[in-house]
Amino acid sequence: MDSSGLPKLKARKIDGHKGTFGTVGILGGTTGDPESNLARMIGAPALVAMGANRAGCGLVKIAAPDSILNSILTVAPMATGFPYHEESTQSGSLERVLERMSAECDAMVIGPGLGTGVHIRRFVHHFSTITNTNRCKSVVLDADALNALCMLDPIPARWTLPTIMTPHPGEAKRLLTALAIDHDPAGDASQRSDACRALAKHFGSVVVLKGMHTVISDGEREWVCKQGHACLSTGGTGDVLAGMIASLVAQSIDDPNVDDFDAACIAVETHARCGELWSQNHLASAGLDPRDLFELIPAVLQQFRDEAM
């Protein structure tokens, strides 16, 4: 056990290769539409990819609209890209991409910068019904996947694939309101705990309710992060965290000591400690660029690995 009480990740095989340590798939990004006042979002999936890479997975794959995929890969050049035509999503392009990614990846992140248009809502509904027959064992639902979920009627109560949901308080409030559940995810510690547990029970998911002292629940177990720093309160840090969670899930598929709940807790603790370390190194309480976390993640995460350096 680490001082946090969390389990150790298994030691990495000395003769391992990039296919040994798990593959993370990411579906996100949107081209935007100035006529509809919709923002172009390129950075989010790239930050997820870098977070996954720095947390130690062997391979990262990104699916994004073809017109922005090259820009995303410029930021995250270690990833391989799978383009789709955003204008053809009505005919099932996103669904086909999902099927390919689920066949080739151990864990996926769906939602960063994805948008919430009608076709995205259809896609999220489709995802909730796919069966666990492919390689992918768990999916992190983040950002716009959660926002699109709020707009479905009815909202799915369970998923066929194990899921980890990563809402910030605003996203959690929208979900709770849509479900007519009266809890405050931005309240005191007790209220945040109740909100997180209620979402976890409703969806049968691990829920990571972000914020200072992030709460994680699977409906039965609960863990609260005691670390963290306000410097993490800036756009993009949540994307990095989503990638870290998926990376640890992918690396722990055959580890009986670390399940999705544990992987999420270890990622959150590492992310929080990286924020504290950045603040100490820079003698600052603000100004963190989410990319600053990348150099810190490997050494901080090493504290949770069951191996000596």
Question: Characteristics of this structure?
Answer:
309 residues; alpha/beta; UDP-N-acetylmuramoyl-L-alanine:D-glutamate ligase; nine-stranded mixed sheet; 9 strands
Low-confidence stretches: none
- Number of separate structural domains: 1
Assign the CATH class: Alpha Beta
Structural class: alpha/beta
State the end-to-end CA separation.
17 Å
Rg calc: 18 Å
CATH H-tier superfamily: Ribokinase
Helix content: 25-40%
How would you portray this structure in words?
- With about 300 residues, this protein is of the alpha/beta class.
- The protein has one domain (about 25-300): 3-Layer(aba) Sandwich (UDP-N-acetylmuramoyl-L-alanine:D-glutamate ligase).
- The chain is built from ten helices and nine strands.
- It has a nine-stranded mixed beta sheet with strand order 3-2-1-4-5-6-7-8-9, with helices on both faces.
- Helix 1 (about 45-55) packs across helix 8, helix 5 runs parallel beside helix 6 (about 170-180) and helix 8 (about 235-250) packs across helix 9.
- It is globular.
- The model has no long low-confidence stretch (mean pLDDT about 90).
Q: Quick recap of the structure?
A:
The protein is α/β, with parallel strands linked by helices and 309 residues long. Helix content is 39%, strand content 12%. The chain contains ten helices and nine strands.
Question: What's the helix and strand layout?
Answer:
Elements: E1 23-27, H1 43-54, E2 59-65, H2 66-75, E3 80-84, H3 93-104, E4 107-110, H4 118-127, E5 138-141, H5 144-150, E6 163-165, H6 169-178, H7 189-203, E7 206-209, E8 215-217, E9 222-224, H8 237-251, H9 260-282, H10 297-302
Parallel strand pairs: 1-2, 1-4, 2-3, 4-5, 5-6, 6-7
Antiparallel strand pairs: 7-8, 8-9
